[in-house]
Amino acid sequence: MSQPPVAVVGIDAGTTAVKATVLTTDGAELATARAPVHVARPGPAQAEQSMTELWHAVVRTVREALETAGDVDVAAAGVTGQGDGAWLLDEHAEPVGPAILWLDGRAADRVRAWEHDGKAAAVRRTTGSTLFPGALPVLLEELEATRPELLRRARHHANCKDWIRSQLTGVLTTDASEASRTYVDTATGTYSDELIDALGHRRFAELLPPIEAAGSHRPLTAAAADTLGLPAGIPVVTGLVDTAAGGAGLGVSDPGQSYAIIGTTAFLGTVHATRADVGTDVGITLATGQDGAVLECLCPMSGTPNLDWVRDLLGRGGQSWEAVEAEARAVSAGAGGVLYLPYGAEAGERAPFADPHASASWLGLSTETTPGQLLRAVYEGIAFSLRECQEALGVGGTLRLCGGAATSGLLCQILADITGCTIERASAAELGARGVAAHALAAITGTEVQAAAARLLGELDVFRPDPGLRTAYETRFAAFVAVRDAIRPHWPDLRGLRTLGDDPSSPASTSAGDEHPSPTHKELA
């Protein structure tokens, strides 16, 4: 009787879906399962998620993937997930309330205050990253002012993957990539007492989990094994935040290599040997925990929500993405002169510029504009945003790509045409899960993570830029930047209009300056 294949499990808890994949040790995908997770909007600019519902989604996807995979010998597991936000636990490591997510915008006014009083500069000096409303330090102050009961009960902070892994192992730790957006000196990969004191946050320091190497591992508890249907005692690796895990899954690890992710947000990252090699002052720097190497990242908020929104807005919500893309593909490059500014996130934009007031808009419309042109303009707007990040990081040549939107051949080709890069799209699904699965594989085989990742990567689809479109897209990109910069000074006023009643003289208009409107209750689904 043949032995069942040895396998590893990768779990990726994204903002809108949890994915679990079962892979053989030579990279063959045996099964993948997905479960949606709900983002609650209990008040203006707020984004929250039930940590309990997230854990239930993990259980559901792992069990479903194992059932589909059949008879396998699971030897290890890894977890990745969305970063940033405030994920607060009590003394029993149970949630004190919903997680405040990375895309939450309630602290936007506080970010502006920190920009003026020097706190944002202190964050930048130590972490190498710009501040934005969904970062932990500014959220802790915001919650202390507006939700003090949460802070009074909180004893630990655990980002998404760390919360899941604590459920798996009973131990709460994090890694350097995850902690880089909190109080970490990314040159050393350790917490900075200097930054904690510069922000006056000594009272929050006790919330921070210990930092371990991404490949460190703890055994799966018997209780978690029974819940998930996995063997008790298998190693569960510490893992990486999702953006860094995506790079591992793509096999990008050497200094000078770059990769992109387009999911709920977009991402463009370059590996550097040391923090001293970071060249921008508007990005995110992630310590990798490997010999001082860092990822220099620009993470625009302009991701797939723009596409979801325009599909629904134009009444295409009941159509498949193939049908939607066919309509956009039928429109010639340039979308008939329509430009789309892809700044639809409530939290504004964070790369390649930081502006919590950033707003989305179409420009260049006429009564002749067609729905197909509006659709294509959104695809091109996302690509223009990534092109601007490309210029800031100096990325050229070949760019590896993954993420939910990377399944779109249209978007991949538009990216190639607008950036001038050859796009290599991983044909394998769930690269974040594969990235942490590579760490799990390295843990059980004793191989280097790079070698394990190469075994799990699979084939790459190639999209080459069309040189015939270069001049036209260069002209449109220049117009995109120019009109965006012309509108930027008016974004605060445009944002303010959202809080006005339909009648500017109505009592509702007097609440426009209320920094903390009373939230409405929505039950987490």
From TrEMBL:
<feature type="domain" description="Carbohydrate kinase FGGY C-terminal">
    <location>
        <begin position="259"/>
        <end position="443"/>
    </location>
</feature>
<dbReference type="GO" id="GO:0042732">
    <property type="term" value="P:D-xylose metabolic process"/>
</dbReference>
<dbReference type="Pfam" id="PF02782">
    <property type="entry name" value="FGGY_C"/>
</dbReference>
<dbReference type="GO" id="GO:0016301">
    <property type="term" value="F:kinase activity"/>
</dbReference>
<keyword id="KW-0119">Carbohydrate metabolism</keyword>
<feature type="domain" description="Carbohydrate kinase FGGY N-terminal">
    <location>
        <begin position="8"/>
        <end position="246"/>
    </location>
</feature>
<keyword id="KW-0418">Kinase</keyword>
<comment type="similarity">
    <text>Belongs to the FGGY kinase family.</text>
</comment>
<dbReference type="InterPro" id="IPR050406">
    <property type="entry name" value="FGGY_Carb_Kinase"/>
</dbReference>
<keyword id="KW-0808">Transferase</keyword>
<feature type="region of interest" description="Disordered">
    <location>
        <begin position="494"/>
        <end position="525"/>
    </location>
</feature>
<dbReference type="InterPro" id="IPR018484">
    <property type="entry name" value="FGGY_N"/>
</dbReference>
<feature type="compositionally biased region" description="Basic and acidic residues">
    <location>
        <begin position="513"/>
        <end position="525"/>
    </location>
</feature>
<dbReference type="Pfam" id="PF00370">
    <property type="entry name" value="FGGY_N"/>
</dbReference>
<keyword id="KW-0859">Xylose metabolism</keyword>
<dbReference type="InterPro" id="IPR018483">
    <property type="entry name" value="Carb_kinase_FGGY_CS"/>
</dbReference>
<dbReference type="InterPro" id="IPR043129">
    <property type="entry name" value="ATPase_NBD"/>
</dbReference>
<dbReference type="InterPro" id="IPR000577">
    <property type="entry name" value="Carb_kinase_FGGY"/>
</dbReference>
<protein>
    <submittedName>
        <fullName>Sugar (Pentulose or hexulose) kinase</fullName>
    </submittedName>
</protein>
<dbReference type="InterPro" id="IPR018485">
    <property type="entry name" value="FGGY_C"/>
</dbReference>
<dbReference type="GO" id="GO:0016773">
    <property type="term" value="F:phosphotransferase activity, alcohol group as acceptor"/>
</dbReference>
